[in-house]
Design goal:
By secondary structure, the chain is mainly alpha-helical. The protein folds into two domains: about 120 residues; about 50 residues, no CATH class. Helix content is about 50%, strand content about 10%. It is built from seven helices and five strands, in the order H-H-H-H-E-H-H-E-E-H-E-E. The strands form two sheets. Strands 1-3-2 form a three-stranded antiparallel beta sheet. Strands 4-5 form a two-stranded antiparallel sheet. Strand 2 and strand 3 form a beta hairpin. Helix 2 runs antiparallel to helix 4. It is elongated and about 80 Å long. The two termini are about 35 Å apart.
Length: about 180
C-alpha cells in the first residue's frame, strides 16, 4: 500500500460510491443522448462525450471500492493474529503499512467495528482485540451431527459454543447449526 500525498486523497478512498454514482449519471446522459440522436437523426457527438468522464469515474469508483474491501480483508487477517491481546496501535499499523496513514487506519478499524466484523477497544494508542469475525458462508450447509446417546443430548455439559458465531451446539456436532462452519 502506498503513502498518500495529502489528506484530500482520503476523501477519494472513503467515498467510492460517490464516484460510481456520478459516473452512472454521465453514462445515463450518454444513453439518453444516444436515444435522442437516433430518434431525431441528430449527431452522436452532441452527448457522446459523456461516455468518457462517465467511464473514467465509474472505473475509478469501482477500483476504490475494491481497494477498500481489500484493506478490510488484509486488516482482519492481521488482527486475527492478535485476537485476545492488547498491542500498540502503531505496531499493527506498521505491520499493515499504515504508519503514515493513521487517520485512514483508525477509520478502517471503526468501520470494521461498526459492521460487527471486529470487536475491539482502542484506548491511548493501544488496541485490545477481543474477537475478529470471519466471513460466514452465504449458504450454510445443514449441520451434521454424530448421533448422540439420549443422556448426552440432555446434558448441558456436552455443549460447545461456535468460535465463529457464538451459538451453542452439541459437543458432537461437526458443523455449527447456525453458520455452518466446520468444527475442528
Amino acid at each position: 500500500m502506498r503513502s498518500l500525498p495529502n489528506d484530500d486523497l482520503d476523501f477519494l478512498k472513503e467515498n467510492p460510491f460517490l464516484f460510481i454514482g456520478i459516473g452512472c449519471v454521465f453514462l445515463v446522459l450518454f444513453i439518453a443522448g444516444m436515444i435522442i440522436a437516433l430518434a431525431t437523426n441528430g449527431s452522436f457527438w452532441t452527448t457522446g462525450w459523456a461516455i468518457i468522464p462517465g467511464g473514467v469515474l465509474l472505473a475509478f469508483g469501482i477500483t476504490q471500492y475494491l481497494q477498500k474491501q481489500n484493506y478490510y480483508k488484509i486488516t482482519l487477517a492481521v488482527l486475527k493474529n492478535y485476537e485476545g491481546k492488547t498491542v500498540p496501535l502503531s505496531q499493527v499499523a506498521k505491520e499493515l503499512n499504515f504508519e503514515n496513514e493513521m487517520r485512514l487506519f483508525r477509520k478502517i478499524l471503526l468501520e470494521l467495528r461498526g459492521s460487527g466484523k471486529l470487536v475491539c477497544q482502542i484506548d491511548k494508542g493501544m488496541i485490545t482485540i477481543q474477537m475478529v469475525h470471519s466471513e460466514a458462508p452465504k449458504v450454510a450447509p445443514q449441520p451434521i451431527f454424530v448421533a448422540p446417546s439420549t443422556d448426552q443430548a440432555t446434558s448441558a455439559s456436552n455443549t460447545v459454543y461456535c468460535p465463529f458465531c457464538g451459538v451453542k451446539n452439541l459437543e458432537t456436532a461437526i458443523f455449527c447449526k447456525n453458520c455452518g462452519q466446520a468444527f475442528q
